[in-house]
Amino acid sequence: MTNLPNCPKCNSEYTYEDGTLFICPECGHEWMATDGEQNIDEAIVKDANGNTLTDGDTVTVIKDLKVKGSSSVLKIGTKVKNIRLVEGDHNIDCKIDGFGAMKLKSEFVKKV
Asked: Which domains does the chain carry?
């Protein structure tokens, strides 16, 4: 069993983990894990070629992608700067000129 920290508000030992938050069932206090308490098994995001992606990278789209809710298409070779990695199915959050804010899957981009 993992060793979870006590609640910083009421010092309860019955805390539990919910995603990236720690929650105290006695007082209802929620807090984020600090660097010393974070899980080591953070997801590693890789592009279509197997290169590891990090926040702030520049990538290009390797396939024409339909934009949901629009009749436009994101063309192959579109350069996306300053990406941000997020959890979920679409694990890249970015802003693309002419399209605005979008979420992309890492399997459809390659690192520049």
From this structure: 1-38 (2.20.25.10), 58-111 (2.30.30.40)
